[in-house]
Amino acid sequence: MFSYLKLEDFSCFTKFELQSITKINVFIGANDTGKTHLIKLLYTIAKSLEEFTKRTESDQPDWREVLAEKLFWVYQPESNKLGQLVKKGESRLKVETRLLDENYYFAFGKDTARQITDCTELAPTQPGLNALFIPPKEVLTALDAIATINEQLQIFGFDHTYYDLIKALRVPTTKGNIQKNLKEVLTSLEHLLTGEIVKKQDQFIFKRGREKYGMSQLAEGFKKLGILTTLIRNRSLNQGTILFIDEPEANLHPQAIHSLVDMLFLLSKAGITIYASTHSYSVIKKLEILARKHQESIQLCSLTKSNGDITAQFSDLSEGMPDNPIIDAAIELYEEDVRLELEP
Length: 344
Hints:
Elements: E1 2-10, E2 13-19, E3 24-29, H1 35-55, H2 63-75, E4 92-99, E5 102-109, E6 118-119, E7 131-134, H3 143-153, H4 160-169, H5 180-193, E8 196-200, E9 203-208, E10 211-214, H6 220-233, E11 242-246, H7 254-269, E12 273-277, H8 281-294, E13 299-306, E14 309-316, H9 325-342
Parallel strand pairs: 3-12, 3-13, 7-11, 11-12
Antiparallel strand pairs: 1-2, 1-4, 4-5, 5-6, 8-9, 9-10, 13-14
């Protein structure tokens, strides 16, 4: 979907360039290296274009306005100014990208409030564009709170990655056949769940045979899996979707992580482009095994912070596991264990 991204003085990045984007793209790095900022930015661009396209059917929006609002509610900047997204010590940021064979750019300075003036002027519509973001925290339990904060109170709290997700989850399930390879993913996910999550009126419940449970009674990891099953069932997640996942491993047992990564790989084979950030060795190792086994390119972007600057190293997991901070941490732990064993 995205084929290019270039940043200048955005957030913690002085310069960043992303090319040769594959079906699955993974960002790793220590805390505060910008992983979530990157996938949120890609999501914001895609989602703003999706919403811009839908709104052209009823009014005549300006993409600059839609983009500015989306940036504001996704990043929820301090002091309520978009200028907070400009890298500290710099005066202006610039973003260039290419999505579905169309080029887009925008730029603004540190004093910008909520309007963007320097931006692609005639943004083309993108019919069929569909972007979804699954954050680390599950949303099924907090669905009403997220809705209230964003619809009635309109205050900072749960950002629009959460709000957009609950809107997608609210879409009613309709009859009809689910795409075959997505049906396989759905069946596998529900096997992991040992049941299914269904919507009853405005609430979600978990069903296992004749037993029914509220979301507060269900394990966090199960609720994350349930989000995927719900999105497949109501066809919010389908061929052509751009799926962003922040820390897919959160609250999952290692074996469930391996199974979830298998599902994500199958989703990519079904025509869904995936961008993920992770701290998990299990996630990247499982992806490396799948990439080598199927000779499928999976891009790994390793971010490192040094002297206040972020550098990026890119590699293809189909060519094996490169050196990276997650591997280094695992090796350090192993070496410490060996030293303890060898001590007299």
